[in-house]
Each structure stands twice: as C-alpha cells, then as structure tokens.
Design a protein that fits this description.
Length: about 160
C-alpha cells in the first residue's frame, strides 16, 4: 500500500468507520479514539496491507479494537463493583426511531455489531463474516436473533404505551 492509497483510505472510509463505531458504543470521544487507533494500526502496517483490501482491514481493526475496549470497561466495572440503575419502559416515546435505538442498545454486543454492519452499513453476510471472523451462517443466526428481539421489544413497548 502506498502513502497515496493510505490518504485515499482516510478520505474514503473515516466517516463510515466513525459512524459504525459510534452506532455501536454511543460515545463520540471513544469512537474518535477507536477510529484514530485503527488508522494508526494501518499506518504501522502499511507495507503489509493490500490497497484493495484496506476497507476490510480498517473495519476489522476497528471492530476488534472496540471489542477490546468494551471488555476492558466491563472488567473495570466489575472490579469497581458498580451497580447501574435498571432501565424500564416508563419512558414515553413519540418516535419509533427512539424505541429502535434503545432496543438496539439492549442487544448483546455481537448481535448489535452484525446488525449494524448489515442494516446500517450495508455489508453482505460474507463481508460481515470476514470482518467479525464468524461463518456466514453464524452471521445470519445473529442477525435473525437480533431482529426477533427488536420485534418483540417494539411490540412490548406498544402494548405498554
């Protein structure tokens, strides 16, 4: 990969990479750090990365960096023995988008990742499998389970409201 290809990768993929990470962890500063770390890792490995596969490399790197940070945060939460308040359905929703965003936030990490890659970023099952190191059938199962959960969640909110 050349320096020009690297610069083009920054131009082409930085916004999409940021949106993907932000949708997953919902923290702008952490998302910016993860994207920056991903490009730093690409720069350190620029000689070994094929210019045609830079998109896959960046998304895979960002995904793994994000998962690592989530795991570290979970460990520190357990170590600090913090208790988080329970979220209930007492919120009054006026927008399906708000309900959907909350529901996506309640999904297990892997289901959220594959769902966001598929429905928000437009990747196909095979590409998602390459990014997440899952088989195509595993990706389909996780997406199916995520969609079933979202459907049940939205129905339960509608019956309460």
């Amino acid at each position: 990969m050349t320096i020009n290809e690297y610069n083009q990768a920054v131009t082409d993929f930085s916004d999409r990479l940021y949106r993907f990470v932000l949708k997953s962890i919902k923290d702008t500063h952490k998302s910016e750090d993860i994207v920056q770390d991903s490009y730093e890792k690409l720069w350190k490995n620029v000689e070994n990365v094929d210019g045609n596969k830079v998109k896959s490399y960046l998304f895979t790197t960002a995904y793994h960096t994000m998962i690592d940070r989530i795991r570290i945060e979970k460990r520190s939460l357990f170590a600090d023995d913090l208790s988080l308040p329970e979220e209930g359905h007492e919120n009054n929703y006026s927008d399906l988008g708000e309900i959907l965003t909350e529901a996506v936030g309640k999904l297990p990490e892997i289901q959220r990742m594959v769902l966001l890659l598929r429905d928000y970023e437009g990747y196909n099952y095979n590409e998602i499998g390459e990014l997440t190191k899952l088989s195509e059938s595993q990706v389909k199962v996780y997406i199916y389970r995520a969609r079933v959960f979202l459907k049940k969640y939205i129905v339960s909110i509608e019956t309460v409201a």
